[in-house]
Design goal:
Chains: A alpha/beta (544), B alpha/beta (446), C alpha/beta (254)
Structural class of chain A: alpha/beta
Distance between the termini of chain A: 79 Å
Strand content of chain A: 5-15%
CATH topology of the largest domain in chain A: Rossmann fold
CATH superfamily of the largest domain in chain A: von Willebrand factor, type A domain
Strand content of chain C: 5-15%
Distance between the termini of chain C: 114 Å
Helix content of chain A: 40-55%
CATH class of the largest domain in chain A: Alpha Beta
Shape of chain C: elongated
Radius of gyration of chain C: 31 Å
Largest sheet of chain C: 7 strands, mixed
Number of helices of chain C: 4
Oligomer: heterotrimer
C-alpha cells in the first residue's frame, strides 16, 4: 500500500525533477524494497534510501517510511532523486572519473576499503553541494532528518558551513571540538570545480583519514562490515558494460602508466567481474577467470589507436553500358538517342539520350592478409609488465587492425631464441592469447631462430610481416638473407640508430616490399605501424 | 480552443495507434516525456504534418516503403492504390517523363505542347523508393522540386501548396549509387525501419492483408480519373479534397480511425507554428550548432580543412567531424521539435523535445572523422551507426550544456543587450558559442 | 507557362528609404536574468584562492631576491638573509594554518608555482608558521613527494608546529623556544643551532643532529644516526638520554 502511494508521489514529481535537471537520459525511477534494513530497528539503521543500477533508480519505500514525521515523503523522494540524478549528470558522471577519484583517494588512504569509502563520501559531498547550489534541492531537509554517526555528523557540519544552512548539528555535538578543525579544512575545498577534483579529493582524504580509520576500527570491534550510505552506495552497478569499457580505455590513455592501471584493476577485479567485465567481452567466461591487468592495459590502450575497417574495393570493369538518361541537345550525336523515352521525336526538350557508364562491381575480394608479428623482448627492450612498452603497444595496434578485418595473427616473441628464450603463437583470432604472448618478456640476448619463423611464413599465402626490434640481433645476416628471398610485405620498426640497423637498411634498400622505420621517439611506434597498415589496406595493388 | 487542440492530438495519436497495431508492427524505440514510440512511425507522422522530407533506411523488406505508404494514406486521406501509382521507384533508367510529366503525345503529333503530369507531382504525398539507386541528376531533380514545391516540364509548371517527401534507401555502401552529401543534407530527418523481432515478424504474415485495409476501389477510380483529366491543376485540388474526404469517411466508418482533412492539417500546422522554444531549448540548439560549425583557426569548419594538433577545442564536437552544419539543420530541428511538443500537448518546446529530435536530424548530415568511426564502429548499440553516433554526440553536448547553462544564457542575454546598444562587454567562456556571440556583436558594431 | 512577375525597376524602393531594422539574433534572451546563487563555499574558496595568490607572490619575490638564477646555497648568512626577506613578505599577508599546508602542496604543482627550491621554500614556510595567528599548526605533508629543508626555522616560544610526514635537512634549526613535532623521519642537521624549545621526531633522524645546539631538547623515538657538535642541550633516543651521556664522539656514525 505504502509502496503504491510512494510510487504515485514519484510519478507526480518526476517530470518536474527531470526538468529541473535538464532532462537527463535516465529511465523513470521506481519504488521498491531495498537492502536488509529491519523495520523498527534502533539506532541509525534506516537502510539505503536509493539504489542505482545501470541508471535505473529505485527508491526504498521502507526508508521513506522510516523518515516519517521528520520530513514529508514528497520532499524526501525529491531529494533522493536529486541526489541520484546528480551522480549521473555531474559527479562522477562516468566510470573513468569514478576510477580516477578512487585512485587518488587510495594514494592517501592506502587501503582499498578506506579509499572506496573516502571516494564515496567525496562524491556525495560534491553531488549534494552541486544540487543545493544549482538545482534548488530539498537535500538539506533530507540531511536534517537522517540519523548520523560520527563521520556523518562531520559531513553534516561541513554542509552547514559550506551551504550556510542549519542542519541541526551543533559544534559541541557528538563530533566535538576536535572535528572543528577537520570541518574547517574540508570547507576550503573547491568541490564544484571539476578540473580540480583530483587535487580536491587528496585534500579531502587527508582530512578524513583519521575519522575513517576510527570508524573502521569501531566497525571492526562491533563485527560489522560497514554501513551503507543512506543515499546509496556508488559501486560499478551504476555503469553498463560499455561504459566500463569506455572508461577503462580513457583511464589507460590518460595515465599511460601500467602500474597505476594494474593497481586499479586488481582493486576492482571482483566488481569488474560482477559487472560482466573480463577478457574477451566476459561472455560465458565465468567469474573464475582472473583478469590479467597488464594484458588488459595494452588492450585498452591499443583501442585508442583504431583505424577504420578496410573497405571492399570497387573496381571498374572497363566496359560501358547504358546507365541513365540525359536531355539531348542540338548538335549532340544521334547514336545514343533512346527512341522510346523520346516518344519517337528528335527535338530539344523531348529527346533523351543514354548516358553510358563503366560497369562497377565489387572487385575480386582478396581478403585482408594475415599478420605475423615478430617482437623483440631481449634485455635492451622494455619489460612490458613493468612499464609501458611502446613496442608492445605498436604490436597490439597492428594485431587489432588485422583482427578487426577478419584476419588471423601469429606472434613470434623472441629474445635468445636458440637458447629457448622465445614464444610462438600460431595463427589465431583470439585477442587475449595474442596479447599474452606479446606481453611476455625474456630479457636475455637477441637472436632469432629462423626454423621457428620460416614455417609461420610459409604456411600462409597472403601474409604481412611486422618486425619490432632494436636490431641488435646476433644472427642478423641470416635474417637479411631470408628477407631477401620472400615477397611478403615486411614492415620493420627499429628503435634507435645503430650499426646493425644501418646494415639492415642497406641490405634491403632495393627491396620494395620491405619498409624500415627508424624510431627516435618510442611514442611514434603505434602511429608508424598504423600508418603502414592504412596504406596496405587501402592500396589497390598488392606488392610485387 | 483548448478542447479543439486536444482533439487533434488525440486524433494523431489514434492514427499512430492504428498504424502500430494493425499495419506496421514494430517495437517502441524512443521515449519522450515518459511516452514510448516507434521512431519510424512517429517521425513519418511528423513529416507528414510538417511538410518535411524524411529518409528511411533499412534492410530490404523491413517495411520502409510500406510504413510511409500507411502514414501518407491516413495523414492525407489518399487510398493506398493511388499512393502506389504515384511512387517513384529508384533505378538508373528513371526518366524525367516518368517522374515529373510527359508531353501529351496526341497534341505533340499535332505540334502542340501540353503536359501530362504524373501522379507523383500532383499528389501531396510523395514517396521515392530506393532513392539512392536513382542517378544523381534525378535525385537532385526530385529534391529541388520538393524544396520549392514547383514542378516544371516543357515550360509549364505546377505548384504544390502542400507536400511531403518520403524516400527510402538501403544502407550506403560501395557498389550502389551513394547519395552525395549535398543531397542527403536536404532531408530533414533520417530514421531506420528496423527488424521488429521474431515474434512481431511472425505476426506480420498472419491475419488480414494489411494493404487491403486502406484501399477503396471507388475512391481510387475517382482519383485516377481526376488525376488523368485535363483540368487545370488548381481546379483539381478541391476535387481531390472532396474525394479524399469521402475516403476519410469510409476509413473512419469501417476502421474507427479518423484521417486528417486539409483544414485539419492546416490548423495543426498553425498550432504547431505557435509553439515557441523555451530558453533552454534555444540555448542548447545554439550550442549544438556552434560546436558543429566552429573552427578557431580557419573561421568555420570546412570539409577540406583538417584540425590542428593540440587545438584548444579538442574536447568539442567540432574536433570529431569534418564538415560544417548546413542552415537546413536548425530549421529541421525547430520544425520537428515543435511538432513533437505539439503532439505531446506541451505548452512550449523544451530541451527534451530538441534532444529527442536532434539525432534523427543530425545523423545523416555529419561527416565523422575516420578515427572516430574506427573507435566506435564496434560499439554495442541498437541504432544504426549514424544515429548512434549522433545520439552519443547529443549526450555529450547536453552534459556540457548542463554544466554551463546559466552562464551561456547569461552570455546570450548580454548579447541581446549589447545588440540593442548597451555598453557592455560580451561574457567570456570556453565554449565556441561565446566566440560566436562575440563575432555577431562585432559585426553589429561595424 | 513560366510567367514570373515582372519587376518594374522604377517602382522599386531605393535602398535608403524604409530600411528594415536588423533582427536581433539574441532577442528571445532579453528577458533572461541570471540569478546567481551563492553559497558560503564560493566565498570560502574565493578567499582561499586570493590568499594563496598572495602567498605565492611572496614566495616568488623571495626567489627573485635571494635565488638569483634559481641557485641558492645553504650557508649561515644566506639562511638569515632569506628568512628576513621571507618575514617581510609574510607579515603583509593574512592567512590561516591551512593555507600554509596548501602552499606546501602547491609548491609541487609546477603549473601553479614553477619553481620549488627546497631551501628558500622551507624558510618561507617557516616564516609563515612563525607568523601564523594560531598557536598550534598542523601540516599534513605525508603525501608530499619532496622533503622540504629548513622547516621549523626559528620556531618561537608559544608556537607548536606538527608536521605529519618526513622532513628534509636542517629541520628545526635555530628553534627559539617553540615545540616542533615531526611525525616521520628527519634528515641531517636537525636542530642545529637551536636555542631552546623542543623537537620531537617520531621516527629516525640523520647525521649532525643538534650541531651547535645551545639549549633545548631533541627527542627521537627511532634511531639517531649521528650527533653533531652540541654545545648545550639534551638529545634523547627512545627515551634514553644520549647527550650528555656516555662519552660519544660527535659527528660519528654509530
Amino acid at each position: 500500500m505504502k509502496k503504491e502511494k510512494h510510487q504515485a508521489i514519484l510519478d507526480e514529481i518526476w517530470p518536474r525533477v527531470k526538468r529541473k535537471h535538464l532532462y537527463p537520459e535516465i529511465p523513470m525511477p521506481k519504488v521498491g524494497e531495498l537492502g536488509d534494513s529491519e523495520e523498527g530497528a534502533a539506532g541509525k539503521d534506516e537502510g539505503v534510501g536509493l539504489e542505482m543500477k545501470e541508471k535505473q533508480m529505485t527508491v526504498n519505500s521502507a526508508f521513506l517510511s522510516s523518515l516519517k514525521g521528520r520530513i514529508p515523503e514528497e520532499q524526501a523522494i525529491e531529494a533522493l532523486l536529486d541526489h541520484g540524478i546528480t551522480h549521473y549528470t555531474f559527479c562522477p558522471w562516468d566510470f573513468h572519473t569514478h576510477v580516477a577519484l578512487y585512485a587518488e583517494a587510495k594514494k592517501v588512504m592506502g587501503d582499498k576499503a578506506l579509499a572506496k569509502r573516502a571516494a564515496n563520501y567525496f562524491i556525495d559531498v560534491v553531488s549534494d553541494t552541486h544540487c543545493v547550489k544549482k538545482r534548488f534541492s530539498d537535500i538539506p531537509e533530507l540531511h536534517r532528518s537522517l540519523k548520523k554517526g560520527k563521520v556523518e555528523e562531520v559531513i553534516a557540519s561541513l554542509y552547514q558551513r559550506i551551504w550556510g544552512i542549519d542542519l541541526g548539528v551543533s559544534s559541541s555535538g557528538k563530533s566535538g571540538k576536535g572535528y572543528e578543525e577537520a570541518v574547517r579544512r574540508l570547507a576550503r575545498i573547491p568541490y564544484l570545480d571539476r578540473s580540480r577534483w583530483n587535487e580536491s579529493i587528496l585534500k579531502f582524504c587527508r582530512t578524513m583519514k583519521p575519522l575513517l580509520l576510527e570508524e573502521q576500527q569501531g566497525e571492526g570491534s562491533q563485527g560489522g562490515k560497514g554501513e551503507s550510505s543512506p543515499t546509496g552506495d556508488h559501486d560499478f552497478n551504476n555503469y553498463s558494460y560499455e561504459e566500463i569499457d569506455e572508461g577503462m580505455r580513457e583511464y589507460a590513455s590518460e595515465k599511460m602508466a601500467l602500474s597505476e592501471f594494474r593497481e586499479m584493476v586488481e582493486d576492482f577485479s571482483e566488481e569488474l567481474k560482477e559487472a560482466g567485465y573480463g577478457m574477451e567481452g566476459g561472455m560465458g567466461r565465468g567469474r573464475g577467470t582472473s583478469i590479467d591487468a597488464d594484458v588488459l592495459f595494452y588492450m585498452k590502450l591499443a583501442e585508442n589507436y583504431a583505424i577504420p575497417l578496410r573497405k571492399v574495393l570497387v573496381e571498374e570493369k572497363g566496359t560501358l553500358h547504358p546507365h541513365s538518361h540525359a536531355p539531348w541537345e542540338v548538335g549532340s550525336p544521334y547514336q545514343d538517342v533512346d527512341i522510346w523515352t523520346s516518344f519517337g521525336k528528335i527535338m530539344p526538350g523531348i529527346t533523351q539520350i543514354w548516358k553510358k557508364k563503366e560497369g562497377k562491381g565489387r572487385g575480386r575480394v582478396e581478403g585482408t592478409p594475415d599478420c605475423l608479428i615478430a617482437i623483440d623482448s631481449s634485455g635492451s627492450m622494455i619489460n612490458p609488465r613493468k612499464s609501458l612498452s611502446y613496442a608492445v603497444l605498436g604490436a597490439a595496434c597492428a594485431s587489432n587492425a588485422y583482427l578487426r578485418n577478419g584476419s588471423k595473427v601469429a606472434v613470434y616473441n623472441f629474445s635468445d631464441a636458440p637458447m629457448g628464450g622465445k614464444d610462438t603463437l600460431d595463427y589465431t583470432d583470439r585477442r587475449e592469447a595474442i596479447y599474452r604472448v606479446l606481453c611476455k618478456y625474456f630479457g636475455g640476448g637477441t637472436a632469432l631462430d629462423l626454423d621457428d619463423l620460416v614455417p609461420l611464413i610459409r604456411s600462409r599465402k597472403n601474409l604481412d610481416l611486422f618486425v619490432i626490434t632494436d636490431m641488435k640481433i646476433t644472427n642478423l645476416e641470416a635474417l637479411i638473407s631470408y628477407f631477401g628471398q620472400i615477397e611478403n610485405r615486411v614492415t620493420a620498426v627499429h628503435i634507435g640508430e645503430n650499426p646493425y640497423a644501418a646494415r639492415f637498411e642497406k641490405a634491403v634498400e632495393k627491396r620494395s616490399n620491405i619498409n624500415i622505420f627508424t624510431v627516435k621517439r618510442k611514442e611514434d611506434i603505434p602511429n608508424i605501424i598504423l600508418g603502414k597498415i592504412r596504406e596496405y589496406f587501402h592500396s589497390t595493388h598488392r606488392g610485387p | 480552443m483548448e478542447a479543439e487542440r486536444n482533439g487533434y492530438q488525440k486524433q494523431i495519436k489514434a492514427i499512430y495507434q492504428f498504424i502500430s497495431e494493425h499495419l506496421y508492427f514494430n517495437r517502441p524505440d524512443i521515449e519522450v516525456k515518459g511516452e514510448h514510440y516507434n521512431s519510424t512511425i512517429l517521425f513519418s507522422i511528423l513529416t507528414g504534418l510538417k511538410k518535411g522530407k524524411e529518409l528511411i533506411i533499412g534492410e530490404p523488406g523491413l517495411g520502409k516503403t510500406t510504413s510511409a505508404e500507411f502514414v501518407c494514406s491516413l495523414i492525407y486521406q489518399i487510398p493506398l492504390g493511388v499512393i502506389w501509382s504515384s511512387e517513384v521507384s529508384g533505378h538508373p533508367e528513371q526518366t524525367e517523363e516518368k517522374i515529373v510529366g510527359r508531353p501529351d503525345l496526341g497534341k505533340l503529333n499535332r505540334g502542340e505542347e501540353d503536359v501530362v503530369w504524373t501522379n507523383f507531382t500532383q499528389l501531396p504525398a510523395k514517396i521515392v523508393d530506393e532513392i539512392n539507386r536513382l542517378p544523381e541528376t534525378k535525385q537532385s531533380m526530385i529534391l529541388d522540386g520538393v524544396d520549392r514545391g514547383n514542378w516544371e516540364y516543357l515550360n509549364e509548371m505546377i505548384v504544390n501548396e502542400e507536400y511531403s517527401l518520403f524516400a527510402t534507401a538501403n544502407y550506403q555502401d560501395g557498389g550502389t549509387n551513394t547519395m552525395i552529401a549535398p543531397l542527403v543534407d536536404r532531408f530533414d530527418v533520417m530514421v531506420e525501419s528496423r527488424y521488429p523481432g521474431a515474434n512481431l515478424a511472425f505476426m506480420v504474415g498472419k491475419g488480414e492483408r494489411k494493404d487491403q485495409l486502406l484501399r477503396h476501389p471507388k475512391s481510387e477510380r475517382d482519383f485516377f480519373r481526376l488525376l488523368k483529366s485535363k483540368i487545370h491543376y488548381e481546379k483539381k485540388l478541391p476535387k481531390m479534397d472532396e474525394i479524399s474526404n469521402g475516403f476519410g469517411e469510409y476509413v473512419h466508418g469501417t476502421l474507427g480511425v479518423k484521417p486528417l482533412r486539409r483544414e485539419d492539417r492546416d490548423q495543426i500546422r498553425a498550432e504547431m507554428g505557435d509553439l515557441l522554444m523555451d530558453l533552454d531549448a534555444s540555448a542548447f540548439t545554439r550550442m549544438l550548432l556552434a560546436e558543429f560549425s566552429f573552427c578557431e583557426r580557419y573561421g568555420q569548419k570546412r570539409s577540406v580543412e583538417t584540425c590542428e594538433e593540440g587545438c584548444h577545442y579538442t574536447g568539442y564536437f567540432c574536433h570529431e567531424i569534418k564538415n560544417c552544419a548546413s542552415n537546413r539543420l536548425p530549421f529541421s530541428i525547430r520544425q520537428y521539435a515543435q511538432a513533437l511538443a505539439w503532439l505531446l500537448q506541451d505548452p512550449e518546446v523544451d530541451i527534451e523535445h530538441v534532444k529527442s529530435v536532434v539525432p534523427y536530424a543530425l545523423g545523416h548530415r555529419v561527416q565523422w572523422k575516420e578515427e572516430v568511426l574506427a573507435r566506435k564502429e564496434r560499439s554495442k548499440r541498437d541504432d544504426p551507426f549514424p544515429i548512434f553516433l549522433a545520439k552519443d554526440a547529443v549526450r555529450a553536448i547536453s552534459q556540457r550544456y548542463r554544466e554551463q547553462s546559466d552562464h551561456l544564457k547569461d552570455a546570450l542575454a548580454a548579447g541581446s543587450r549589447i545588440f540593442q546598444g548597451e555598453e557592455l562587454e560580451p561574457l567570456e567562456g570556453d565554449h565556441p558559442l561565446y566566440q560566436e556571440i562575440k563575432k555577431d556583436l562585432e559585426g553589429r558594431r561595424r | 507557362m513560366k510567367n514570373l512577375p515582372h519587376q518594374n525597376k522604377d517602382l522599386a524602393d531605393p535602398p535608403s528609404r524604409n530600411p528594415r531594422p536588423i533582427r536581433n539574433p539574441f532577442e528571445e534572451f532579453k528577458v533572461y536574468s541570471f540569478v546567481k546563487t551563492d553559497i558560503p563555499l564560493d566565498r570560502i574558496v574565493e578567499s582561499t584562492e586570493v590568499v594563496m595568490d598572495e602567498i605565492r607572490r611572496g614566495y616568488e619575490k623571495l626567489l627573485e631576491e635571494e635565488a638569483k638564477e634559481l641557485v641558492w646555497m645553504v650557508q649561515y648568512n644566506t639562511i638569515i638573509k632569506a628568512y628576513e626577506v621571507a618575514e617581510r613578505y609574510v607579515k603583509e599577508i593574512r592567512y590561516s594554518a591551512e593555507d600554509i599546508e596548501d602552499f606546501c602542496f602547491a609548491l609541487e604543482d609546477t603549473q601553479r608555482i614553477p619553481y620549488l627550491i627546497p631551501g628558500p621554500a622551507g624558510l618561507y614556510i617557516s616564516a609563515l608558521s612563525n607568523y601564523a595567528q594560531e598557536a598550534e599548526i598542523v601540516l599534513k605533508l605525508s603525501e608530499l613527494k619532496t622533503e622540504i629543508n629548513l622547516l621549523g626555522f626559528r620556531l618561537p616560544k608559544g608556537k607548536r608546529l606538527i608536521i605529519e610526514g618526513d622532513t628534509g635537512d636542517f629541520t628545526g634549526i635555530g628553534v627559539e623556544g617553540g615545540e616542533l613535532v615531526v611525525e616521520g623521519n628527519a634528515k641531517n642537521w636537525t636542530g642545529a643551532g637551536m636555542r631552546s624549545g623542543k623537537i620531537l621526531v617520531k621516527k629516525n633522524i640523520g647525521l649532525h643532529t643538534g650541531e651547535w645546539m645551545m639549549g633545548g631538547e631533541i627527542h627521537v623515538e627511532g634511531r639517531v644516526r649521528g650527533l653533531g657538535n652540541i654545545v648545550e642541550g639534551k638529545v634523547f633516543e627512545r627515551d634514553k638520554l644520549v647527550y650528555p651521556g656516555k662519552a660519544r664522539y660527535p659527528s660519528l656514525y654509530y
